Known about the structure:
The protein has 359 residues and is an alpha/beta fold. The chain has eleven helices and 17 strands.
Amino acid sequence: MEVKSAYIHYPHCKHLCNYCDFYKHLYDEQSNLVYLDYLINSLEKQKKILNENKFSLKNLETIYIGGGTPSLWGKEIIRFLKKFNEYFDLDKSSLKEFSVEVDPATYKEEEILELINYGVNRFSIGVQCFDEKIFPLVDRSHDFSEIKKTLEFFQKLQVNFSVDFMIGLPEKEYKRDIEKELIAINKYNPKHMSLYILSVGESYPLIDKIPGESVVGEEYLKVSEVMAKLGFNQYEVSNYSKAGFESQHNWKYWNQESYIALGPSGSGLLVGKKKGLRYKWLPNGEYRKEELNSNQLYLEKLYTLARTRRGISYEDFSSSALKELHDFERQSYGVFENDRFVFTSKGFVILDTLIKKVL
Length: 359
Protein backbone atom coordinates (compact mmCIF):
# COMPACT_ATOMS: atom_id res chain seq x y z
CA MET A 1 0.00 0.00 0.00
CA GLU A 2 1.37 3.39 -0.96
CA VAL A 3 1.55 6.52 1.19
CA LYS A 4 1.30 9.68 -0.89
CA SER A 5 1.46 12.50 1.67
CA ALA A 6 3.98 13.72 4.23
CA TYR A 7 3.77 16.23 7.07
CA ILE A 8 6.99 17.66 8.54
CA HIS A 9 6.88 19.61 11.80
CA TYR A 10 9.45 22.37 12.32
CA PRO A 11 9.42 23.17 16.07
CA HIS A 12 11.31 26.47 16.38
CA CYS A 13 9.92 29.98 16.70
CA LYS A 14 11.41 33.45 16.92
CA HIS A 15 8.83 34.28 19.60
CA LEU A 16 6.52 32.04 21.65
CA CYS A 17 3.02 33.49 21.26
CA ASN A 18 1.15 33.38 24.56
CA TYR A 19 -1.85 31.50 23.16
CA CYS A 20 -0.20 28.87 20.93
CA ASP A 21 -0.21 25.26 22.13
CA PHE A 22 1.66 23.68 19.20
CA TYR A 23 4.92 21.98 20.12
CA LYS A 24 7.70 24.56 19.79
CA HIS A 25 10.70 26.23 21.40
CA LEU A 26 12.73 29.37 20.89
CA TYR A 27 14.96 29.54 17.84
CA ASP A 28 18.72 30.00 18.18
CA GLU A 29 21.64 29.67 15.76
CA GLN A 30 22.17 25.98 16.48
CA SER A 31 18.47 25.07 16.19
CA ASN A 32 18.50 24.19 12.50
CA LEU A 33 21.57 21.95 12.75
CA VAL A 34 20.26 20.09 15.79
CA TYR A 35 16.85 19.69 14.18
CA LEU A 36 18.36 18.45 10.92
CA ASP A 37 20.19 15.69 12.83
CA TYR A 38 16.94 14.82 14.64
CA LEU A 39 15.09 14.39 11.34
CA ILE A 40 17.82 12.40 9.63
CA ASN A 41 17.96 10.05 12.62
CA SER A 42 14.18 9.58 12.31
CA LEU A 43 14.31 8.36 8.72
CA GLU A 44 15.35 4.79 9.55
CA LYS A 45 12.60 4.54 12.18
CA GLN A 46 10.07 5.95 9.73
CA LYS A 47 11.08 3.33 7.18
CA LYS A 48 10.67 0.63 9.82
CA ILE A 49 7.13 1.84 10.64
CA LEU A 50 6.21 1.61 6.96
CA ASN A 51 7.82 -1.78 6.37
CA GLU A 52 6.29 -3.40 9.46
CA ASN A 53 2.83 -2.36 8.27
CA LYS A 54 3.46 -3.24 4.60
CA PHE A 55 3.37 0.32 3.28
CA SER A 56 5.69 2.02 0.81
CA LEU A 57 6.60 5.64 0.21
CA LYS A 58 7.56 6.50 -3.32
CA ASN A 59 5.17 8.65 -5.34
CA LEU A 60 4.49 11.53 -2.94
CA GLU A 61 1.67 13.81 -4.06
CA THR A 62 1.62 16.34 -1.20
CA ILE A 63 4.11 17.66 1.35
CA TYR A 64 3.21 20.10 4.11
CA ILE A 65 5.84 21.73 6.34
CA GLY A 66 4.22 23.30 9.39
CA GLY A 67 5.27 24.44 12.83
CA GLY A 68 6.45 26.33 14.71
CA THR A 69 7.83 28.71 12.11
CA PRO A 70 9.22 26.78 9.11
CA SER A 71 10.29 29.98 7.36
CA LEU A 72 13.09 30.17 9.98
CA TRP A 73 14.42 26.86 8.63
CA GLY A 74 15.50 28.55 5.41
CA LYS A 75 17.79 26.66 3.04
CA GLU A 76 18.01 23.74 5.48
CA ILE A 77 14.56 22.71 4.22
CA ILE A 78 16.09 21.85 0.84
CA ARG A 79 19.12 20.21 2.45
CA PHE A 80 16.87 17.86 4.41
CA LEU A 81 14.48 17.16 1.53
CA LYS A 82 17.35 16.07 -0.68
CA LYS A 83 18.34 13.49 1.94
CA PHE A 84 14.70 12.53 2.42
CA ASN A 85 14.26 11.99 -1.34
CA GLU A 86 17.47 9.96 -1.60
CA TYR A 87 16.59 7.80 1.40
CA PHE A 88 13.17 6.81 0.09
CA ASP A 89 14.10 7.03 -3.60
CA LEU A 90 11.20 9.42 -4.20
CA ASP A 91 9.99 10.52 -7.61
CA LYS A 92 9.51 14.30 -7.49
CA SER A 93 7.48 14.29 -10.70
CA SER A 94 4.46 12.95 -8.80
CA LEU A 95 4.37 15.94 -6.41
CA LYS A 96 1.22 18.03 -6.88
CA GLU A 97 1.23 20.31 -3.84
CA PHE A 98 4.17 21.34 -1.66
CA SER A 99 3.25 23.81 1.11
CA VAL A 100 5.43 25.71 3.58
CA GLU A 101 4.18 27.93 6.40
CA VAL A 102 5.60 31.46 6.54
CA ASP A 103 5.40 34.11 9.26
CA PRO A 104 6.17 37.78 8.54
CA ALA A 105 9.70 38.91 9.52
CA THR A 106 11.04 35.33 9.69
CA TYR A 107 12.13 34.71 6.11
CA LYS A 108 14.65 35.91 3.53
CA GLU A 109 13.33 36.67 0.07
CA GLU A 110 16.16 34.78 -1.64
CA GLU A 111 15.35 31.67 0.43
CA ILE A 112 11.71 31.80 -0.66
CA LEU A 113 12.87 31.96 -4.29
CA GLU A 114 15.11 28.92 -3.72
CA LEU A 115 12.18 27.00 -2.25
CA ILE A 116 10.07 27.83 -5.31
CA ASN A 117 12.89 26.66 -7.61
CA TYR A 118 13.06 23.42 -5.64
CA GLY A 119 9.34 22.74 -6.08
CA VAL A 120 7.43 24.51 -3.30
CA ASN A 121 4.24 25.73 -4.98
CA ARG A 122 2.09 26.87 -2.04
CA PHE A 123 2.71 29.06 1.00
CA SER A 124 0.60 29.57 4.12
CA ILE A 125 1.07 33.02 5.67
CA GLY A 126 0.32 33.75 9.33
CA VAL A 127 -1.67 36.99 9.07
CA GLN A 128 -4.20 36.38 11.93
CA CYS A 129 -5.42 39.99 12.06
CA PHE A 130 -5.44 42.90 9.60
CA ASP A 131 -6.52 45.69 11.93
CA GLU A 132 -3.67 47.95 13.06
CA LYS A 133 -5.47 48.91 16.28
CA ILE A 134 -6.24 45.35 17.41
CA PHE A 135 -3.08 43.71 16.05
CA PRO A 136 -0.88 44.63 19.09
CA LEU A 137 -3.16 42.45 21.26
CA VAL A 138 -2.29 39.34 19.25
CA ASP A 139 1.22 38.99 20.78
CA ARG A 140 3.17 38.62 17.54
CA SER A 141 6.91 39.22 17.18
CA HIS A 142 6.55 41.48 14.13
CA ASP A 143 4.78 44.78 13.60
CA PHE A 144 1.78 45.46 11.39
CA SER A 145 3.83 46.93 8.53
CA GLU A 146 5.65 43.60 8.12
CA ILE A 147 2.37 41.82 7.43
CA LYS A 148 1.71 44.21 4.56
CA LYS A 149 5.26 43.81 3.29
CA THR A 150 4.93 40.00 3.32
CA LEU A 151 1.59 40.02 1.48
CA GLU A 152 2.98 42.45 -1.10
CA PHE A 153 6.01 40.20 -1.65
CA PHE A 154 3.96 37.06 -2.27
CA GLN A 155 1.45 38.92 -4.42
CA LYS A 156 4.31 40.20 -6.58
CA LEU A 157 5.67 36.64 -6.93
CA GLN A 158 2.24 35.56 -8.26
CA VAL A 159 2.43 32.29 -6.36
CA ASN A 160 -0.36 30.31 -4.73
CA PHE A 161 -0.63 31.40 -1.12
CA SER A 162 -3.08 30.99 1.74
CA VAL A 163 -3.59 33.25 4.76
CA ASP A 164 -4.39 32.34 8.34
CA PHE A 165 -7.09 34.49 9.95
CA MET A 166 -8.15 34.40 13.59
CA ILE A 167 -11.42 35.29 15.30
CA GLY A 168 -12.31 35.49 18.98
CA LEU A 169 -9.46 37.96 19.57
CA PRO A 170 -9.37 40.11 22.72
CA GLU A 171 -10.98 43.49 22.22
CA LYS A 172 -10.90 46.67 24.27
CA GLU A 173 -12.99 49.75 23.55
CA TYR A 174 -12.35 49.40 19.81
CA LYS A 175 -14.69 46.94 18.06
CA ARG A 176 -13.26 44.83 15.26
CA ASP A 177 -14.57 45.21 11.69
CA ILE A 178 -14.01 41.75 10.22
CA GLU A 179 -15.52 42.58 6.84
CA LYS A 180 -13.13 45.50 6.39
CA GLU A 181 -10.14 43.30 7.32
CA LEU A 182 -11.07 40.52 4.90
CA ILE A 183 -11.68 42.93 2.01
CA ALA A 184 -8.27 44.52 2.66
CA ILE A 185 -6.52 41.11 2.73
CA ASN A 186 -8.29 40.03 -0.46
CA LYS A 187 -6.65 42.92 -2.37
CA TYR A 188 -3.38 40.94 -2.19
CA ASN A 189 -5.08 38.08 -4.09
CA PRO A 190 -4.69 35.06 -1.78
CA LYS A 191 -6.25 31.90 -3.20
CA HIS A 192 -7.12 30.34 0.15
CA MET A 193 -7.86 31.20 3.77
CA SER A 194 -7.76 29.08 6.94
CA LEU A 195 -9.83 30.30 9.87
CA TYR A 196 -8.91 29.80 13.53
CA ILE A 197 -10.70 30.58 16.78
CA LEU A 198 -8.44 31.87 19.53
CA SER A 199 -8.30 29.30 22.33
CA VAL A 200 -6.62 30.31 25.59
CA GLY A 201 -5.98 29.02 29.10
CA GLU A 202 -6.78 30.65 32.43
CA SER A 203 -3.32 32.23 32.58
CA TYR A 204 -3.81 34.13 29.32
CA PRO A 205 -3.02 37.78 30.16
CA LEU A 206 -6.08 39.21 28.37
CA ILE A 207 -8.55 36.54 29.48
CA ASP A 208 -11.03 39.22 30.61
CA LYS A 209 -11.06 40.71 27.10
CA ILE A 210 -11.94 37.47 25.26
CA PRO A 211 -15.42 37.65 23.65
CA GLY A 212 -18.09 35.11 24.59
CA GLU A 213 -19.25 32.17 22.45
CA SER A 214 -22.19 34.06 20.96
CA VAL A 215 -19.91 36.86 19.73
CA VAL A 216 -17.44 34.34 18.29
CA GLY A 217 -20.33 32.57 16.55
CA GLU A 218 -21.41 35.87 14.99
CA GLU A 219 -17.83 36.53 13.85
CA TYR A 220 -17.68 33.06 12.28
CA LEU A 221 -20.88 33.61 10.31
CA LYS A 222 -19.69 37.06 9.24
CA VAL A 223 -16.45 35.53 7.90
CA SER A 224 -18.42 32.93 5.92
CA GLU A 225 -20.73 35.62 4.52
CA VAL A 226 -17.90 37.95 3.48
CA MET A 227 -15.74 35.19 2.00
CA ALA A 228 -18.67 34.08 -0.17
CA LYS A 229 -19.05 37.67 -1.42
CA LEU A 230 -15.35 37.71 -2.27
CA GLY A 231 -15.69 34.57 -4.41
CA PHE A 232 -14.39 31.99 -1.94
CA ASN A 233 -16.01 28.61 -1.42
CA GLN A 234 -16.23 27.33 2.16
CA TYR A 235 -15.24 23.73 1.51
CA GLU A 236 -14.59 22.78 5.15
CA VAL A 237 -15.46 24.12 8.59
CA SER A 238 -12.36 26.33 8.74
CA ASN A 239 -11.20 26.57 5.13
CA TYR A 240 -12.17 28.77 2.18
CA SER A 241 -10.71 28.76 -1.32
CA LYS A 242 -11.06 30.17 -4.80
CA ALA A 243 -12.14 27.56 -7.39
CA GLY A 244 -9.39 25.01 -7.97
CA PHE A 245 -7.31 26.06 -4.95
CA GLU A 246 -8.54 23.76 -2.19
CA SER A 247 -5.73 22.32 -0.10
CA GLN A 248 -4.99 18.92 -1.60
CA HIS A 249 -2.96 17.96 1.46
CA ASN A 250 -5.85 18.69 3.82
CA TRP A 251 -8.15 16.58 1.69
CA LYS A 252 -5.82 13.62 2.33
CA TYR A 253 -6.60 14.01 6.03
CA TRP A 254 -10.34 14.42 5.60
CA ASN A 255 -10.62 11.49 3.18
CA GLN A 256 -8.66 9.40 5.68
CA GLU A 257 -5.86 8.58 3.28
CA SER A 258 -2.51 7.44 4.69
CA TYR A 259 0.19 10.00 5.43
CA ILE A 260 3.52 9.96 7.21
CA ALA A 261 4.81 12.56 9.65
CA LEU A 262 8.26 13.61 10.81
CA GLY A 263 9.44 15.99 13.53
CA PRO A 264 8.55 16.25 17.24
CA SER A 265 4.76 16.04 17.81
CA GLY A 266 4.23 15.16 14.13
CA SER A 267 1.44 12.59 13.86
CA GLY A 268 1.07 10.11 10.97
CA LEU A 269 -1.68 7.68 9.99
CA LEU A 270 -1.47 4.43 8.03
CA VAL A 271 -4.85 3.08 6.91
CA GLY A 272 -5.15 -0.58 5.97
CA LYS A 273 -8.17 -2.54 4.80
CA LYS A 274 -9.32 -3.57 8.28
CA LYS A 275 -7.23 -1.54 10.71
CA GLY A 276 -5.11 1.56 11.04
CA LEU A 277 -2.04 2.78 12.88
CA ARG A 278 -1.61 6.29 14.24
CA TYR A 279 1.83 7.26 15.50
CA LYS A 280 3.24 10.42 17.05
CA TRP A 281 6.87 11.50 17.29
CA LEU A 282 8.25 12.47 20.70
CA PRO A 283 10.97 15.09 21.42
CA ASN A 284 13.49 12.32 22.26
CA GLY A 285 13.24 10.87 18.73
CA GLU A 286 11.05 7.91 19.72
CA TYR A 287 7.40 7.56 18.80
CA ARG A 288 4.13 6.52 20.42
CA LYS A 289 1.63 4.46 18.46
CA GLU A 290 -2.07 3.63 18.64
CA GLU A 291 -3.85 0.88 16.74
CA LEU A 292 -7.30 1.64 15.35
CA ASN A 293 -9.91 -0.95 14.47
CA SER A 294 -12.29 -0.67 11.52
CA ASN A 295 -15.11 0.82 13.64
CA GLN A 296 -12.84 3.56 14.99
CA LEU A 297 -11.62 4.40 11.50
CA TYR A 298 -15.19 4.46 10.20
CA LEU A 299 -16.43 6.87 12.87
CA GLU A 300 -13.42 9.14 12.45
CA LYS A 301 -13.99 9.31 8.70
CA LEU A 302 -17.68 10.16 9.16
CA TYR A 303 -16.70 12.96 11.54
CA THR A 304 -14.04 14.45 9.27
CA LEU A 305 -16.30 14.29 6.20
CA ALA A 306 -19.08 15.96 8.20
CA ARG A 307 -16.72 18.92 8.52
CA THR A 308 -16.55 19.29 4.73
CA ARG A 309 -18.89 20.39 1.97
CA ARG A 310 -18.82 16.85 0.59
CA GLY A 311 -20.87 15.86 3.60
CA ILE A 312 -21.88 12.35 4.63
CA SER A 313 -23.98 9.73 2.90
CA TYR A 314 -27.34 9.28 4.62
CA GLU A 315 -27.02 5.54 3.99
CA ASP A 316 -24.53 5.53 6.86
CA PHE A 317 -27.20 6.45 9.39
CA SER A 318 -29.97 4.65 11.24
CA SER A 319 -33.58 5.76 10.92
CA SER A 320 -33.40 7.60 14.27
CA ALA A 321 -30.24 9.43 13.18
CA LEU A 322 -31.88 10.37 9.88
CA LYS A 323 -34.76 11.88 11.84
CA GLU A 324 -32.23 14.09 13.62
CA LEU A 325 -30.72 15.11 10.26
CA HIS A 326 -34.15 16.12 8.94
CA ASP A 327 -34.62 18.20 12.11
CA PHE A 328 -31.26 19.83 11.40
CA GLU A 329 -32.43 20.68 7.88
CA ARG A 330 -35.60 22.30 9.20
CA GLN A 331 -33.44 24.47 11.48
CA SER A 332 -31.10 25.41 8.57
CA TYR A 333 -28.15 23.56 10.10
CA GLY A 334 -27.72 21.48 6.95
CA VAL A 335 -29.26 20.29 3.69
CA PHE A 336 -29.68 17.02 1.83
CA GLU A 337 -27.82 17.13 -1.50
CA ASN A 338 -27.42 14.18 -3.89
CA ASP A 339 -28.02 11.49 -1.25
CA ARG A 340 -25.68 13.20 1.20
CA PHE A 341 -26.19 15.50 4.18
CA VAL A 342 -24.10 18.66 4.13
CA PHE A 343 -23.86 21.05 7.07
CA THR A 344 -24.30 24.78 6.46
CA SER A 345 -22.18 27.55 8.00
CA LYS A 346 -24.84 27.88 10.69
CA GLY A 347 -24.48 24.15 11.41
CA PHE A 348 -20.69 24.39 11.44
CA VAL A 349 -20.90 26.85 14.36
CA ILE A 350 -22.22 24.08 16.64
CA LEU A 351 -20.98 21.07 14.65
CA ASP A 352 -19.64 19.08 17.61
CA THR A 353 -22.98 19.28 19.38
CA LEU A 354 -24.89 18.24 16.25
CA ILE A 355 -22.55 15.37 15.42
CA LYS A 356 -22.85 13.90 18.92
CA LYS A 357 -26.60 13.57 18.33
CA VAL A 358 -26.19 11.40 15.26
CA LEU A 359 -22.96 9.43 15.85
